[in-house]
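[recover] target loaded
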């Protein structure tokens, strides 16, 4: 019987992937489906944020010292809830929460993984309808199964990730995730309420013509960064240009575009913020994992992001990430300096 089903949903894809690993327990596939479910719930609220009195300040500030919008809290609760009620996650770390949450129940204590996430990155853009996103990172726990997970399970180098992904709530809603087998993108079909495989085997072009940086901080950047930005502005057809500057101010949107089209995204350290603004554990590590699996590179200007040994849950790091050849050119400016 010819079943013409060329649409593969996220659930079908993750289960199909299991067939490639007969020894796999299915816990990672289950965790990814849990993330997909929470993303669909958040998507509903993001898409109607302008209609319901869900905008506006929640009246509190999160551990980052930023005004918390109601949607941030809602999104955080959806991802915590989906993972707590699943079978795969022993605990979570979230941009919205001061400390990790150890689920400490019999099923969770026997789970294989822990997850870190930024439930709604770029939330300052909610009120002006700019694309926002969720970013997540999955680690195999290092503590003994059968007992509650520990802080050490969360402070692992990014090169220990077993999966990482993001959701972009944009003109369409996409769920993109990477494992050691590669990077795949799924677009939400609202008619059936399923993420459907739309971008199989994503590869980051090794060259691009897009550079993303906040020019407002230009005079606070180190000399090598300033010289690289100036070099981008001077590119001509003869040397792979001209380049265009694209900066949305929403990391998921900027990095997603550069991942697909080729380009480089930078959030360097500044005089005011020498460590930059972005968080290592649930913004830079997951994107570094994804972009490297797609053939790109990610550093803090001196070191591979995935090799940084974390010391704190919410620590920041400068970030340079994107197309391989563009990153190699950037590094010649940073090495010199
Ligand atoms: P700036 C959003 O607040 C965010 O955390 C990232 O999504 C984004 O890339 C960055 O900050 C933008 O920061 O300082 O350029 O506005």
């Amino acid at each position: 019987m010819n079943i013409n089903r060329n649409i593969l949903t996220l659930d079908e894809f993750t289960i199909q992937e299991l067939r490639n690993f007969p020894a796999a327990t299915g816990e990672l596939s289950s965790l990814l489906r849990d993330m997909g479910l929470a993303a669909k719930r958040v998507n509903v609220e993001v898409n109607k944020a302008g209609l319901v009195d869900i905008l506006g300040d929640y009246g509190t500030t999160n551990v980052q010292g930023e005004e918390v919008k109601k949607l941030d809290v809602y999104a955080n609760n959806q991802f915590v809830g989906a993972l707590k009620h699943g079978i795969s996650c022993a605990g979570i770390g979230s941009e919205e929460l001061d400390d990790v949450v150890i689920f400490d129940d019999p099923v969770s204590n026997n789970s294989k993984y822990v997850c870190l996430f930024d439930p709604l990155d770029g939330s300052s853009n909610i009120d002006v309808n700019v694309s926002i996103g969720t970013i997540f990172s999955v680690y195999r726990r290092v503590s003994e199964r059968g007992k509650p997970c520990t802080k050490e399970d969360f402070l692992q180098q990014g090169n220990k990730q077993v999966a990482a992904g993001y959701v972009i709530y944009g003109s369409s809603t996409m769920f993109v995730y990477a494992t050691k087998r590669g990077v795949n993108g799924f677009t939400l079909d609202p008619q059936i309420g399923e993420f459907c495989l739309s971008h199989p085997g994503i590869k980051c072009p090794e060259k691009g013509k897009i550079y993303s940086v906040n020019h407002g901080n230009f005079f606070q950047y180190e000399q090598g960064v300033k010289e690289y930005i100036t070099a981008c502005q001077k590119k001509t057809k003869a040397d792979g240009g001209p380049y265009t500057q694209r900066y949305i101010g929403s990391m998921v949107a900027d990095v997603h575009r550069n991942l697909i089209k080729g380009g480089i995204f930078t959030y360097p350290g500044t005089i005011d913020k020498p460590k930059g603004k972005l968080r290592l554990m649930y913004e830079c590590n997951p994107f570094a994992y994804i972009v490297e699996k797609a053939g790109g590179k990610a550093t803090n200007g001196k070191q591979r992001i995935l090799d940084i040994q974390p010391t704190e849950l919410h620590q920041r790091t400068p970030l340079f990430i994107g197309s391989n050849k563009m990153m190699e050119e950037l590094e010649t400016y940073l090495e010199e300096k």
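[recover] notes: Residues 27-47 form the longest helix (21 residues).
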